[in-house]
Amino acid sequence: MSDIECPICKSNAINKSSNGFENKTVSCPRCGDFSMSSTAAAVWDAKNANLRQIANACGWIREHQGISISSNDIDSLLSVATPSVAERAAKVLIYINKLSTDLSYKFSLNINNAIEWLGISYSDNALELDYLFRTFLADAVGYISLSGGIGGTLSQVQITPRGYEFLESLKHHRADSRIGFCAMWFNESILPIWTNAIEPAIKDAGYDPKKINEHQHNNRIDDEIIAMIRRSKFVVADFTGQRGGVYFEAGFALGLGLQVIWTCKNTELKDVHFDNRQYNFVVWEEDKLDDFKDALQNRIEATIGRGNLS
After folding, report:
1. DSSP state, 208?
2. Would you state the pLDDT for residue 305?
3. Which of 10, 97, 157, 235 has its CA at a distance of 20 to 30 angstroms from the CA of residue 166?
């Protein structure tokens, strides 16, 4: 291991790979752990990313630890969208909760030297981070309490009862759901995948399988999709056909805190978008649907737990 400059944000980082490898495995206090080829690093530098693009890239990489970045991924990394202020504040609160050892946990933070928190919150400077802690989380919504200190130090940072209530709402509002929703391409060519593999896998795992074109409704189909996902325990997203709707539905489910089970035809896995490539896909082959059904059922039970639908 050796000290290097992070190829993304230029913070002091550690090169955890052996010398001579094209791919560097980087451990950065802002971005976290990722690998990046020398060619990709050169392309990134040539693009002259602005501070907002760097902040978004750092935040995205921190949420996708262990991702391997190639030169083909740079344009996608540059186009990562900025989360809303509320989303960024929620990321901060969730991370504080991860650090908390018990309900009495408090800590101090020097905003001007909080490199890790810049990545967590998609912030490009200390003033943004201060706003998220002090103005939004403490003053506006009351999810944390804190004391302002000298030189940008926040003291006695602690999650409030209201903050814990918000965190619980993220985790448990679908606790009693038995719906396993499937987002997939509505095409007759892959209908057997649903009938012979996905539907029975969800059912045999103890859940109620649903996909929107088989669900009876009177609403607009996009409204019904959103409503069904909100009521679901988890989502199986099959990316065969690379349909934009499946990407949207999987992303919406993740935003709600739902577990997403990722599937795709084996020959199309290479076409899955950069943002989703790091997930562990259950792949299927047309002549091995029984194997796919068993693998998907096992993944559901391992990830979600077995349901009790009779």
Report:
1. E
2. 86
3. 235
- Give the distance, in angstroms, between the CA of residue 123 and the centroid of all CA atoms in the same chain: 17
For residue 116, the model assigns a pLDDT of 96
Amino acid at 108: S
How many residues are listed for the chain in this entry?
Answer: 310
Structure tokens at 49: 């990313």
**Of 138, 171, 204, the domain-final residue:** 171
Say what the pLDDT of residue 275 is.
66
Nearest CA to 233 out of 263, 267, 265, 202 is that of 202
Q: What is the token pair recorded at 223?
A: 């409204």
Residue 163 is predicted with a pLDDT of 94
**What value, to the nearest 5°, has the Cα angle with vertex 46 and ends 43 and 50?**
110
Q: Is position 7 within any domain?
A: yes
* Same domain membership, residue 123 and residue 65: no
Residues 72 and 92 in one domain: no
8-state DSSP, 285: -
- CA end-to-end span of the chain, whole Å? 54
| Separation between Cα atoms, residue 187 and residue 267, nearest integer Å | 17
Kindly state the percentage of the chain with pLDDT values over 90.
Answer: 55
Strands 107-110 and 153-159: antiparallel
Where residue 212 sits, what CATH number does that domain have? 3.40.50.450
In the predicted structure, residue 303 carries a pLDDT above the cut 60: yes
Boundary (domain end) residue, out of 171, 190, 207: 171
Reported confidence tier of residue 217, pLDDT bands at 50, 70, 90 = very low
Domain hosting residue 227, numbered range: 179-303
- Sign of the alpha-carbon torsion through 155, 161, 162, 165: positive
What CA–CA distance (Å, rounded) separates 279 from 299?
13
**Other CB atoms within 10 A of residue 20 CB:** 5
- pLDDT at 239 (0 to 100): 93
Tokens (6 digits) for 166: 């918000």
